[in-house]
Amino acid sequence: MWTIGHRIINFKWGAHFKYEEVEEWEGKAGLYFDLHLETADYYEEDLDEDEEEAEVDDWHAKIVWNNYHSCIFSSEEWAYKGFLVGSEETPFDLEVLDGKEYAIDFLSEEDQEDWEPELTAFDIYLLGHDATAFHTIKFTKVENQTYQINWKGKLALAYAGDYEFRYDFHTLISSTSFIGITIPDELTDLRAYELLERFVSRPALFELKNDNGNRQFVLK
After folding, report:
1. Euclidean distance between the first and final Cα of the chain, in Å?
2. pTM to 2 decimal places
3. Which residues is 8 bridged to in the sheet?
């Protein structure tokens, strides 16, 4: 129900490389994690559409939530963004992922005043195309290569013109597996292996999988 949270119907955890050849991108080269989340309809468990509401702001208005149906929260739906987990100086080490917590987009007051959505790690469609920052994302191994992901952060109703990150969110993914590192069409296999060796501490843990032209490095 919209007042107590929204059921997750789709979740993916993958990764991609950022590298110097991508002309439109300016930032640090490395391996970036991607998270993609979709919820069920906000009104999935609330069938009482005739209930009258007192005047409240958009965040507390059931009718406003229902107008936007459901949420997509993603680093890849509209643009490949994500957060850095492996660089040339500090390659990604799968062996230390268990218990690892990442702090992402902790914006200064100046950053918030000059907020640029293309520079943050995630995009969100919540009550329109809104904004999100101040993430903490913790990975805890469950068994084998499955992990729990505990994800907290803040939201701003940017679609309504409110750019203050005043609302908290929290989602817990109880068990999920890494689907792999996506390789874009423009990279040759050789160049992809070069990036793997550059940004991952133990590249031998991965193998190249080609599924009808869709290439990924997956865990062996």
Report:
1. 40
2. 0.92
3. 39
Strand, helix or coil for residue 50: coil
CB 70 within 8 A of CB 39: yes
Place of tokens 């509209």: 78
Closest by Cα among 9, 3, 20 to 63: 3
Instruction: For 117, list phi and psi in degrees, rounded to 5.
Output: -60, -30
Instruction: Provide the CB-side half-sphere exposure for 203 (13 A, CA).
Output: 12
pLDDT digits (tens, 9 = 90+) for 37-94: 999 999 887 655 555 555 678 888 888 888 899 999 999 999 889 999 999 999 999 9
Residue 92 near residue 31 (C-beta atoms within 8 A)? yes
According to DSSP, the β-strands at 30-39 and 72-74 are antiparallel
